Structures are given as structure tokens and as C-alpha cells.
Amino acid sequence: MAQFFKEKPTRSVAKSQKLSLSIQSLDHLAQGVAQHQGKVVFVDGALPGENVQTQLTENKKQFAKAKLLRIDTPSEQRIAPACPHYQRCGGCNLQHLDHQQQAAHKRQALKALFSKLAQLTPAQQEALPEIDEILSAPWGYRRKARLSSWYDRQQKQFTLGFRGRESHKVVGIDACPVLAPELSGLIKPVAACLARLQSVATIGHVELIATAQLPMVVIRVTQSLSAKDEAKLIELAERQNCAMVLEHADEQWQYLRGERPSYQLQTTAAPLSLRFNPGNFIQVNAGVNQHMVARAVEWLAVSPTDKVLDLFCGMGNFSLAIAAGGAEVTGVEGVANLVELAKANADAAGLANATFYCSDLNGDLTREPWFGKIDKLLLDPSRAGAFEALAHLGKLSPERVVYVSCNPVSLARDSQQLFKLGYQLTQLTALDMFPQTHHIEAMALFVRHK
User: Fold this and answer.
1) What is annotated as the active site (predicted)?
2) Residue 90 lies inside a defined structural domain of this protein
3) Nearest alpha-carbon partner for 381 in 394, 362, 357
4) I want to staple 289 with a disulfide (CB 3.0 to 4.6 A). Which of 36, 59, 251, 283 is the partner?
5) Are 342 and 331 in contact (CB under 8 A)?
6) 193 annotated to a ligand binding site
7) Is 428 inside any structural domain?
8) Distances 132 to 135, 170, 290, 429 between C-alpha atoms, Å
9) According to the model, what pLDDT value does residue 221 have?
10) Which residues contact 125 (CB under 8 A, 6 or more apart)?
């Protein structure tokens, strides 16, 4: 027997409902927060104190999301976005708020997340430290960015830019004000050159990296380019005085011009040069990274007799700076090629007191050769946090723990384990790593009660 189904009209009507809302606050994703009939409604692009007209895009039992249609009463804090692509590009979502106000919002959001997720006792809530910050320049701060590309075979048109807001469509751009000026200036000539290649349809993403040597253009290709296409790219690189690299499958790098990049890290002992491969993770905000590493070393209060463990160490961003002060440092990372880079960087710097291991930090750490009593611990995990690694904290028994986080939600959650083991949160800093965006990064110092 045939069965016929009709979509429930109440759902689509409710979803497309238009609402007049008063925005009360911003959440940690920088969405405006309003109340409607006892339900929380999130409105991207709205600011506290604004009266806005919206249309529902998602209607759940506990909350709803709405699209901003019109601002009837704008906030005094609202400013005109500096970038002409802001309304369409998905790269930034806070240019309509003054930079100082962005920083204030992120401090408040960080404190609210700790109060909500860290399960603080009244005494711990009272003892929560005042949140300070490491500020960035609001523009021109980004030393690495990945651009998306799209080739329309019917129109024979090539587009280079960023994905649109809540869209897979590539928004073409000529410049980007959050990029380092030497990178932003490359976008237009790189796009024009790629559009003229015979193999334009095989071009994937494009990475721009500001290195200690030359600005670098890294082009992902799905097949080898012809000699003529390679010559065009070399000519572009010479004209723009940049390095040019092709990324083939399995992270195979073909250097058409230039050499493997590095970045500089100034420490109290000596400047360090950290080499990396184009596809490796590096902190994109060089200025904030410099201050962040210095503050981590300060908070750890490292002496030459200390044993320091750096988990999720990458290529040694923190490990080498700590080792430069004379302490015995062990860095552990789950990605093998990053461990090899960390070893090479330590050797190049003459830091024999830094050793590195490749280990699964989500597994049983007690069987690892490096596991044992330590004096200080530094954690710099991915967005998922360090929950599994912290399960072994009691056996490691460090005096101090510095936790660097790219996700304050997991930082607040993981703090519960530290509190249960008798650690006190004594310092909390908001890192202005990504101005003009909602992203909040933070670092925290936990000290063990004696």
C-alpha cells in the first residue's frame, strides 16, 4: 500500500518566522543573545543593546538561531567594518566591533566559561584571578593563511579568496587587511598568474606564509604542472621576490624558488630559529606568540635544575625557549614529522638539554620511557583539550602547570581535574591571537598546594 508523507507546515512556518528582538549580550562565539518567549535566540552580527529585526533559521527545543535582517537601534560600540569583503567573506565576524571592545568581550566570555564549566566551588569562584591579556595589533597580524580556489569550467573563470559566510562558495578578494602586508599584496598577482596557467583546473588551495627569509606562496596541485606553467610561477616569484612551492600528494614539497622556511623566536638567553615545513602548524600571530612563550617561561619559574615536560610540543615552540634557560626539557608530540623537526631545531640551536619523543597522548602514558616525576608541566593541546593526558597528572606531580589553550571550553573543562588534584588557578590570560574574529585563546597557570 502506498504511503504519502507531507512535511509538517508548522516546522517551516516556525523556522522562517520573523522576530523583533532586543540583544542582551554576546556569547563566546560573538553571537548576539536575546530572549523570545522563554527561549534563547542567537543572532550573528548583532551587538548588546541593539534592537533588531531577524528571521529564524534554526528552531530547536532549547534555543533558536536567527538571521540579522535590520538594525533598528544600533549600539554605540558598532563601527563600520574596514574590509570591503566583510559582509560576504567568512574569514572575520567581529569587524563591526571596536578592537578594544572585542578584547573586553573575550575576557568576559573567558570568565563566564570558567564560571559555567569548571565546576568551581564558591571559594574557587571567589579566588578566580583577574583576567589580563596579551593584545595584538588589530590589523596586519596574520603571518599564515590558506586561501581557497575555484575554477568555473563553463565560464573558464578562476577565483581565489576565502569561503563565504555559512557557504562553500569562494569569495574572490584582492587584499586582506588582517594578513601581514607582504602577504596581502601577493593575493592579486598570484590569482592573476594562476588564472593564466594551462593546468588552472588542477589548482587546489593556496597558502601564504611570512617567513624569516621571504614571503612564501605554497600551491596545492592535484597533478604535476607543465614546464611552461612552472616557468610562469618562477617568473612571478622573482617579480614579487617571494618563495614559490608546489605541494603534491602526501606533503611532498617542490621548491621552485626559495628554501625551507623558518621563524624567529627571541628568548632571554638567545634568539632561536625554528625551521618548519610549509604544511606544519605554526602560531599565525607572531607578535602574540612571542609574548605568549615569554610569559609561559616566566610562569613556570624554571631553574637550571628543573625537569620540565612539554606535552603537545609540536616543533618545539615552547620547549626550545624553556631549554634555552638551562632546564632539562622533554617534549612529547603525537605527529612524528614534528618530533623530527623539534630534534633538528634543538640540534641547530645547540640545546643538548632538550629531548623529544613521539607518543600517543591519548593512550596509556605510564609505559612511555619519558614518563616520571617532573618539576614543571606545559600543555599546548589541540581544540579537544588534554583530558586524557591529565588523567596521569597525579603520578607526574609537577609543582606548576601552564596550560595554553586554543579552546576555552576544553580549558575550563580540563581545569576540573587540576582542581581535584589540589591545584589552584593563580593566573589567567586572554590571548588576542585572532583580532576581528570570535576566536578566544587563553593560557592559565595552576600551582599545586603544598
Assistant:
1) 406
2) no
3) 362
4) 283
5) yes
6) no
7) yes
8) 10, 37, 17, 5
9) 97
10) 115
CATH number (domain holding residue 37): 2.40.50.140
Beta strands in 122-278 (DSSP E): 132-134, 144-152, 157-163, 170-172, 203-210, 215-221, 243-248, 252-257, 262-266, 271-275
Domain residues for the domain of 218 are 144-257
Q: Check: CB of residue 161 under 8 Å from CB of residue 173.
A: yes
Q: Is residue 375 part of a domain?
A: yes
On average, the pLDDT of the chain sits at 94
Confidence of residue 12 (pLDDT cuts 50, 70, 90): very low
195 and 133 part of one domain: no
| Residue 21, in any domain of the structure | yes
Q: In which element (H, E) is residue 37 found?
A: none
Confidence of residue 211 (pLDDT cuts 50, 70, 90): very high
Q: Is 353 annotated as a binding residue?
A: no
Q: Tell me the mean pLDDT in the region 414-424.
A: 94
- Is 176 annotated to bind a ligand? Reply is yes
Chain segment 182-206, per-residue pLDDT in tens = 999 999 999 999 999 999 999 999 9
pLDDT computed for residue 8 by the predictor: 46
Please report which confidence band the pLDDT of residue 1 belongs to, taking 50, 70 and 90 as the band edges. Answer: very low
15 secondary structure, DSSP code: H
DSSP H/E element including 126: helix 122-127
**Strands in 236-323 per DSSP E:** 243-248, 252-257, 262-266, 271-275, 307-311
Catalytic positions, written as ranges = 406
Provide the 3-class DSSP secondary structure of residue 270. Answer: coil
Whole-angstrom distance, CA of residue 18 vs CA of residue 399: 55
Q: Are residues 213 and 297 in the same domain?
A: no
Residues 312, 355, single domain; the answer is yes
Is 42 marked as a binding-site residue? Answer: no
Looking at residue 91, the DSSP 8-state letter turns out to be S
Cβ neighbourhood burial of 124 (10 Å; 0-12, 13-18, 19+): middle
What is the domain-level CATH number for residue 252? 2.40.50.1070
- Domain co-membership, 358 together with 231: no
Same domain, 122 and 176: no
Q: Clarify whether residues 297 and 430 are in a common domain.
A: yes
Listed range (228-232, 361-365, 428-432) with the worst mean pLDDT = 361-365
Q: Are strands 203-210 and 243-248 parallel, antiparallel or unpaired?
A: unpaired
